[in-house]
Amino acid sequence: MARPGAACPPPARRVVVAARALLFWALVYSYCGVCACIAGLRLLWSIGRRPGETFRWAVRENPPACLNDPSLGTHCYVRIKDSGLRFHYVAAGERGKPLMLLLHGFPEFWYSWRHQLREFKSEYRVVALDLRGYGETDAPSHKENYKLDCLITDIKDILESLGYNKCVLIGHDWGGMIAWLVAICFPEMVTKLIVVNFPHPSVFTEYILRHPSQLIKSGYYFFFQMPWFPEFMFTVNDFKVLKSLFTSQATGIGRKGCRLTAEDIEAYLYVFSQPGALTGPMNHYRNIF
């Protein structure tokens, strides 16, 4: 018998690792099922209250004027050689100035950085990117194309395609996760790192598993593991969930008098109401575990 504190022999260690993996995946899919049940109950409640409106949603045919506001910068595209994907971005500020690269979160796109594009263009070449699968950037159909390795490589390749070897890297929410990993994998490419609303990835999963309150707040990570149903729930009542994320008291933008305008909301609805526009963004999360 091994002494207390001695290292476990390899077979025993493999059993421990397998048991922990089994418990981890049991938790992931159990909580996924719980979130799906809650979403299903909400759907039934909506059908009971407003059966005619529940399944009504519309594709926005024309972009609102704010998406073509020249004060925000110029719409540009770059095709990455290795992946073959075409990325869309909006750039402001003179070429040759230090690069500030902005990575948005979910459910967002380049327009979330409109204030930063205006604010920093006098000092930087500011580039607000549509991440892989978002907005006008190409969206591969298979969820395996959204693994973290692919997302990290996207940023490296885009930086090089823009003619830079380093940048000020800013990420919010899911873009913050990508920004952390780019800085970890390619520290020489990041002169400054600014992350908004996302913890360091080395502590993220462990913190969720140890703190039930955070597990509840991050429930959508688990819900998004399901195929097609999360996308469908976003379309219910003409994208009520999407509107609520930006306007509700709990999660919306509305503090200190800073509110989204009706045109701002329409910009998000225009992007995410397009056929298949929600699948790419959710595929990012379908690889996180």
UniProtKB/TrEMBL annotation:
Keyword annotations for this protein, in alphabetical order, are:
Hydrolase, Membrane, Transmembrane, Transmembrane helix
Q: What GO molecular function annotations does the UniProt record carry, in alphabetical order? A: epoxide hydrolase activity
- Please indicate if the UniProt record lists Transmembrane helix as a keyword: yes
InterPro entries recorded? AB_hydrolase_1 (IPR000073), AB_hydrolase_fold (IPR029058), Epox_hydrolase-like (IPR000639)
Membrane-spanning parts: 22-45
Task: Indicate yes or no for the key word Nucleotidyltransferase.
Answer: no
Q: Which residues form the AB hydrolase-1 domain?
A: 98-212
Q: Which family does it belong to?
A: Belongs to the AB hydrolase superfamily. Epoxide hydrolase family.
Q: What is this protein called?
A: EPHX4 hydrolase
Organism of provenance: Pterocles burchelli
Q: Give me the gene this protein comes from.
A: Ephx4
